[in-house]
Amino acid sequence: MRKVVKLLALSLAMLVLAAPAFAGKLESIKAAGVLKAGVKDSQVPFGYVDEKTSKIVGFEIDLMQALADKLGVKLDVKPVTSATRIPMLTQGDIDIIAATMTHKKEREDQIDFSITYFQTGQKLLVKKDGGVKTVADLAGKKVGSAKGSTSEQNVKKAQPECTVVSFETYPEAFLALKQGKVQAVTTDESILLGLKNSDEKSGDYEIVGEYISPEPYGLGMVENDSDFRDFVNLTLMELWETGKFQTMYTKWFGKDTPNYIPLDWKLELWP
């Protein structure tokens, strides 16, 4: 009998020790009392450092704050780059990615995505007198983009005769454009607009060309955690249906902002 009791106690102890490994993301976030979100810190107006407060602010930070509020936990934003965001998620450094990340089929092999929360497309940012107006004009020229982004691959497919120069961040690529080291910067139009408008001489630059590719943004989450993914999707839909999503959008992309982008699409809503 004593032996049976010992075995039961040992089994119970093993179950207790193993419990955290099987806990879903929702439970682990609630237990920790904090939602760790990977965000960009130089991507106006999605996520960037406010010079007055030294805090990271932006549209994606507001979305993450809404998720944290819904969970009743604090929000901890952690800066990521296009190259580091997925490794940081899969290694457990962050709980979710909100970093202008395009939902691509090949990324489904690594992480899960939310429904699309922002729609844009890839274009070119150039100097007005630089001689580049379309992707065809990039033949034999250098174009800057960010490491680990889909923009690197898309522009090479669209213009195989260009040379892609990759930087850690898009502001670094924009600096290279201003210094004449590249003849264009390519990424999503919404990001290019923020780069252009953040410069003192924004009138010297323009966004040109047809869309190179569609760029639907999704929030990134670890694979096979449907409870957390459902929570994120249902919260996004709730924000849309209550008008809070549109209020956030207007705050960062409305007519009264320097980064005006009409909201001409609707969030996917489940019946």
TrEMBL record:
GO BP, one annotated term: amino acid transport
Residue stretches making up the Solute-binding protein family 3/N-terminal domain: 34-256
Stretches assigned to the Ionotropic glutamate receptor C-terminal domain: 41-255
Keyword Signal: yes
Superkingdom, natural source: Bacteria
Signal sequence, start to end: 1-23
Keywords for this protein: Signal, Transport
GO terms of molecular function: ligand-gated monoatomic ion channel activity
Record-level GO cellular component terms: extracellular region; membrane; outer membrane-bounded periplasmic space
Gene3D superfamilies named among the record's database cross-references: Periplasmic binding protein-like II
PANTHER family per the UniProt record, alphabetical: ABC TRANSPORTER GLUTAMINE-BINDING PROTEIN GLNH (PTHR30085:SF6), AMINO ACID ABC TRANSPORTER PERMEASE (PTHR30085)
Similarity comment text for this entry: Belongs to the bacterial solute-binding protein 3 family.
Name recorded for this polypeptide: Putative amino acid ABC transporter substrate-binding protein
Organism listed in the record: Megalodesulfovibrio gigas (strain ATCC 19364 / DSM 1382 / NCIMB 9332 / VKM B-1759)
